[in-house]
Design a protein that fits this description.
This protein has 448 residues and is an alpha+beta fold. It has 13 helices and eleven strands. Helix 1 packs across helix 3, helix 5 packs across helix 6 and helix 7 crosses helix 9.
């Protein structure tokens, strides 16, 4: 087989492929053996007609078409491998020569990955956020634990306060007419959660149990339901139950109740350690992403639409899978958000472009630096995947081998490129901001 590749546009390559006469003749024989079993030829049992009689009955073109379908896909993929191009979409095929006794010649117009012109990706500088944990941070986490383990007390007397848990009935009306979705019975609500539109929860503060109150609100102009956006409404609310959190004192007994520690000091030390680890992880992530962002921003490429559309497809599929786990269909989601598939895909496009560009740059850096994964690194990644998804290494390895190692190897290359950028990066010195004494300047009288 012969194959040549010519770049005819920025991201388009034209392959010209020639398949040997012998291979095409063998494909014609295979086509005959396949078709003769499917066609009834008068005077012969199915599958027993001689080829000459068969061709006279169904026509030679039927065999040629079948043989072409056998030969071209295999020849195309071999040509892709031989020429080293990286297609990102299905090819446009054009048959040039198809005759028995001659080589098959065809052309394939293919959209390929764009050429990436790398900018600076070593010696980049980025700030690393401060990872210091203060006493207030530990105190805030203790208060969060205190609220999370609070005991709920049902109030017979007293007024609604911020943070209370209510059971309410409500009915919303616009111009005195109830509207769809504006009614609820035995609805659980935490005051301050901002579940309802602005003014609704605030209007319940000060109410008592079994009290009914009309609360006037205005729907936001950008409200998800267009028929309610910007309109004034009145909600009639009845408070049926008020529950308040009873907070336990933060002491040694509290530490025993909410953790495995015996004393409050031990709990504080544990919280501080976890906060420091989380802070370091966030700081490292910010440093890494900033460096990658700079490397990507400093690179040049022209991304084919096919790559963007493919990435948008993946993003839409991710959304659909997440919705499915929540028992929501894509159609219901679009209806609820008042959007369409076209609008959703348009919203995805900037993020898709950013994602594709990032991948292309990291692939180009891996290639430039010859960052090829070793067998040990591939095996380590397989073991890591197994731990993350709860499957045995053998099961993951078998799946990888069945699907081909290309995708896994490419992901390891990308990870190695990221590690390389970070290893070559520098922590930028913090810039101290100068605070101007504006008030002092403003207090001085103007000079004549």
């Amino acid at each position: 087989m012969k194959a040549t590749a010519e770049r005819i546009e920025k991201n388009t390559v034209l392959l010209e492929i020639e398949v040997e006469t012998e291979r095409f003749s063998k494909a014609l024989d295979q086509a005959f053996q396949k078709l003769v079993k499917k066609v009834n030829v008068p005077g012969f049992r199915r599958g027993k007609a001689p080829r000459m009689i068969f061709e006279r009955h169904v026509g030679t073109q039927a065999l040629v078409d079948e043989a072409v379908e056998m030969v071209i896909p295999e020849a195309y993929f071999m040509a892709v491998g031989d020429t080293g191009i990286e297609p990102v979409a299905q090819p446009e095929l054009e048959l040039v020569q198809v005759e028995e006794g001659k080589p098959v010649v065809f052309k394939a117009k293919v959209t390929v990955k764009p050429e990436v012109t790398l900018g600076q990706y070593t010696g980049l500088e980025a700030p690393k956020p401060d990872t210091t944990i203060k006493d207030d941070d530990v105190g805030n986490e203790l208060e969060r634990l205190q609220r999370a383990h609070a005991r709920l007390i049902s109030l017979e007397e007293g007024e609604v306060e911020n943070g209370d848990l209510l059971t309410i009935d409500f009915l919303g009306k616009i111009d005195g007419i109830p509207f769809e979705g504006g009614e609820g019975n035995d609805y659980s609500l935490e005051i301050g959660s901002h579940v309802f539109i602005s003014g609704m929860e605030e209007g319940m503060i000060g109410m008592k149990r079994d009290e009914t109150r009309d609360i006037e609100v205005t729907f936001p102009e950008d409200y998800r339901k267009e028929d309610l956006a910007g309109k004034d409404a009145v909600f009639t609310v009845t408070v049926k139950e008020i529950k308040r959190k009873e907070l336990a004192p933060i002491d040694d007994d509290f530490a025993k109740d909410v953790s495995e520690f015996e004393t409050l000091e031990e709990l504080k030390a544990s919280i501080k350690n976890k906060l420091e680890q989380a802070s370091k992880t966030r700081s490292d992530a910010v440093f890494k992403q900033t460096l990658i962002g700079k490397a990507v921003e400093d690179s040049q490429m022209e991304i084919p639409d096919e790559m963007l559309e493919s990435r948008i497809d993946e993003m839409a599929q991710d959304i659909e899978r997440n919705l499915w786990t929540q028992g929501v269909s894509m159609q219901d989601y679009l209806s609820y958000t008042g959007s369409t598939v076209e609008e959703m895909r348009k919203q995805f496009r900037p993020e898709a472009e950013k994602s594709v560009k990032r991948t292309l740059v990291l692939e180009a850096i891996a290639k430039a630096e010859k960052l090829e994964p070793s067998e040990e690194e591939i095996e380590a990644e397989i073991e890591k995947i197994g731990r993350e998804i709860g499957q045995s290494t053998e099961t993951v390895r078998k799946t990888v081998e069945e699907r081909g190692r290309g995708k896994l190897v490419e992901q390891i290359r990308i990870n190695k490129a990221i590690d390389f950028i970070v290893s070559q990066g520098k922590i930028a010195e913090p810039v101290e901001e100068k605070v101007e004494e504006k008030e002092e300047q403003e207090s001085k009288p103007e000079q004549e």
